[in-house]
Design goal:
Elements: E1 2-3, E2 11-16, E3 20-26, E4 32-39, H1 45-59, E5 68-73, E6 77-78, E7 83-84, H2 97-105, E8 108-113, H3 114-133, H4 138-141, E9 158-163, E10 167-173, E11 176-177, H5 208-212, H6 214-221, H7 230-251, E12 255-259, H8 261-281, E13 291-294, H9 301-317
Parallel strand pairs: 2-5, 5-8, 9-12, 12-13
Antiparallel strand pairs: 1-4, 2-3, 3-4, 6-7, 9-10, 10-11
Helix pairs in contact: 1-2, 3-9, 7-8
The protein binds zinc ion.
Zinc ion (ZN) binds near residues 202 and 207.
Length: about 325
């Protein structure tokens, strides 16, 4: 367990993944004050999750105890019972995640899919970058509509794409997630990138998830993602580049922010495929400034961003 002491409003953040569970207390900047991680057990996941959260809460300095919390995991979320319903991970269906974390922490807990949480965190990081680089005298620069005082939102919004065990994502506009009818807007894993392609876990063919998720790549190669042949890594990048160009053309944005462990693991062959296909596909005039940016956010940043939205709403309502 790691600890540091930075006074600020804090939140409990939990990343519930197939390979690890990480829990921590994060400050408003998303930095962890206390954090701990375990390998995800095959059985009794809820028992392990509850025990981890209890340890983290107990380790937090009294003056930095959180008042809200959030859990990110492979989505989608079934909000009413407070559970996740990940495709291809059916043993997690009906696991009472919100009840367990609420019981272990004593806090109000929000659940969000990892991709939508990532998009929020990517937005907040982009906003912080803009704030850090914004001119101090808006009148002289003429850029007063782009400074932090204009509101906590990146102009135009952010498209976030998360590549982990699933392909997931989110769309942030005016500082908040676009929800859609089922709170799944931006979850692009089942966008078709090859109509004659691979069979997907969802039952369709050619979904992005089959090419650019850890589970999808491992199913193709029948080996660990860490020893993926370069041709498969490059093809994952090609499919991601194809999807990104289409998303940017559709949503009229300047950039997609990409993150998640697959990007780091597949490395340069993946990035080469992505760059090549993205450049080939961005032919429309409104895409002349389009780009893909790789974000390196902490593992707790997505849940932290979700929790701090709750905190802001609590303050606004007071
Ligand atoms: Zn699919």
């Amino acid at each position: 367990m790691t600890t540091s002491r930075e006074p600020s409003a804090t939140a409990l953040a939990v990343d519930l993944g197939e390979r690890h569970i990480v829990a921590g207390i994060v400050d408003a900047a998303g930095d962890a004050i206390v954090a701990d991680r375990i390998v995800t057990p095959r059985r009794e996941v809820m028992r392990a999750l509850g025990a981890l959260v209890e340890r983290v809460i107990a380790a937090a300095p009294v003056e930095q105890r959180p008042t809200v919390g959030a859990v990110t995991a492979p989505g989608p979320v079934d909000a009413a019972p407070g559970e996740f319903r990940p495709l291809g991970l059916r043993r997690w269906w009906h696991e009472p995640v919100r009840r367990v974390v609420t019981s272990a922490s004593g806090l109000d807990i929000a659940l969000e899919s990892i991709g939508r949480g990532f998009a929020l965190a990517a937005h907040d990081a982009a906003f912080a970058d803009r704030a850090a680089s914004a001119p101090t005298n808006a009148d002289e620069s003429g850029a007063d509509d782009q400074t932090p005082s204009a509101g906590a939102a990146v102009p135009g919004g952010v498209l976030g794409l998360y590549l982990g065990d699933q392909v997931d994502g989110g769309v942030v506009v005016a500082g908040g997630l676009v929800n859609g009818v089922n709170r799944q807007a931006g979850r692009v894993g089942h966008l078709c990138v090859d109509p004659d392609g691979l069979q997907c876990v969802c039952g369709a063919v050619g979904c992005l998830e089959s090419y650019a998720s850890i589970r999808g790549v491992e199913a193709q190669t029948d080996r660990s993602i860490t020893v993926t042949p370069p041709a498969f890594a490059e093809r994952a990048g090609t499919m991601v580049g194809r999807a990104c160009a289409g998303l940017l053309a559709t949503f009229d944005q300047h950039q997609v922010v990409i993150g998640g462990p697959l990007v780091r693991i597949l490395g340069e062959p993946f990035l080469a495929g992505l760059r090549s296909e993205f450049e080939r596909r961005c032919r429309l005039p409104h895409l002349t400034q389009a780009r893909v940016r790789i974000a390196t956010l902490s593992v707790l940043a997505p849940a932290g961003a979700v929790a701090h939205r709750m905190l802001a709403q609590t303050v606004d309502a007071a």
